[in-house]
Amino acid sequence: MRSTPDYPGSRLVQGAALVLAATGVLTLYLVGVPGFPTIPPGPIILGLAGILVLATRWRVMLIVGLVAAAFVAVGGLIEGSVWGRLADPADLGPFLGALLQYVGLVVALVSGAVAVKEAYGTVAAARTPRSASRVTSH
User: What is the pTM of this model?
Assistant: First the structure.
């Protein structure tokens, strides 16, 4: 019996990317970017989703991670200040925070989609009867 869980690479990448994105949002908060609430929800949502993706084997957590990444990415793009932060690398704190956040979010979205396909695609393939999967020509 193995002592470490056998996770597909896409699950590990998704979880790590969610934690990276949470670190980026937390960096933005800690360097004093205006507009954050007293307790910012972004790092909590992304960090918790990343931990759940990494710490559990439940397939549904892959979807939770994907939804969390999409929620924060869309919200940040609608809010719009990310472009100004990425355009000003001289202001290092906000630049690094935004860079970490959006690199993490993009990687989490892509790897999350792959992980969901791997997790749910294998079940569908396993349920397909052998005779249905063969194509015969007469």
Answer: 0.83
